[in-house]
Amino acid sequence: MAQELETALLGAVGAGPVESGEFAATHNVPHLQLVGLLKSLQASDMVTMEDLDHSRTVLTAEAQGYLGVGSPEAQVFAAVPAEGISLAEIKKQLGAAGDVGFKQAMQSKWVAIDKSGGEPKVVRKVQAIQDRVLEVLTALAEGKESGVSDAELAALKKRKLIAVEQWKTYNVGRGPAWAPQRRKAATELTAEMLQKGTWREETFKEYNFNALGQLPAGGHLHPLLKLRTQFRKIFTQMGFEEMPTNNYVESSFWNFDALFQPQQHPARDAHDTFFLTKPAATPASNFPQDYLQRVKETHQHGGYGSIGYGYDWKTAEAEKNLLRTHTTAVSSRMLYRLAQEGFRPAKYFSIDRVFRNEAIDRTHLAEFHQIEGVVCDYGLTLSDLIGALAQFFDRLGLKKLRFKPAFNPYTEPSMEIFSYSEQLEKWIEVGNSGMFRPEMLRPMGLPEGVNVIAWGLGLERPTMILYSIDNIRDLFGHKVSLSMVKKNPVCRLGL
Ligand code: PHE
Question: Whole-model pTM?
Fold first, then answer.
């Protein structure tokens, strides 16, 4: 039915403008229903709509009751015999019409009250009357408004015998997208449309770019992010600046060679490092040429009091791209830059992701986060390093520290950091540290007498201890439970 009406309407509109009121009448549908259809066709540009305002005078229910009977005043006049009648009798005969009719008949001076006989009586004042009110109401009921004066209309309106009804219809025309049949617009481009080429004929529903997406119920910080914020706070409170750590892909040059890590070092093995295949290398022309020469020279023959490694340093090895294995790669870039900009004492830190090609188990992942602190100044000693570590770890709540001599290719001396755990009743390793070697710093151009102390630790281990998570896979990666992320408590250090 609705479909037929739509087809009939589109057909009619195709032939010429359509007046909606007429159309609804000829198709025997309520105008309101037709308007619903018109609006939806207009929304898809198939028809245009132009407002047509109408008004009409209609009789009220009271007035309808007088048709064929007479106006109440005429009824009252007719009820009055030559000898007169009491008002009570009129009201008894005519009911409610008697009441209004009497007032109107008095006003028109058709009747009068005669008190000469003692009892007041209603008597005729004229011989005959013309029931103009009935004539007008009858004419209006037949839709003939032309012979009726404005004054008459106003009087009837005041007596609530007539009312003005207003309504709207539409002049409906062909819209730019008019067609004899409506086609449902497609909401999505499908693989099938592409394969069959039917997308060419398809009409697509427009996107609503103003629609708002569904609001997420809430955001939650991962424990690693919470702890990272705490570490950032500690570093910034100690006056450290954050280093830019936004490059996960690094060249071997900055990750290893700049750090005086020999090219045969086992850490450079593919078992420990993820090398990139695309792009496999950073052309050596990207490295500062004079610096590259000094690095090569130092690896091969030493300098600055060192005898070097005595091997044949290969540019091709330094060009190899990898996923950085430690954030010390960032520190090496920063120290080089500091030397180029003209040295000033500086304190840097970084907290970001690193990658190692490790077998995954409950304490190891192939990617994790490192926290690194670096201090550069004239005349720094091992005591400065120990002092800085004591301050740093004290803010974490780790007050008892011990240091164990260790080895890093780029630091001398090097120390592993241990902290006593009251909970576990034993010393646990919490980090690694050292003083960068002159073989690393001098080729960069850092002035004679400048020392750099540095330390590094993982972010995962302390987070696991703090949040009592004993399997790293429950902390990071695809096995993480979202409810853990939602429910984990605030991070409080130093308690
Ligand atoms: N880069 C070292 C590591 O990967 C940590 C470290 C940083 C050691 C700075 C000494 C100085 O473990």
Answer: 0.61
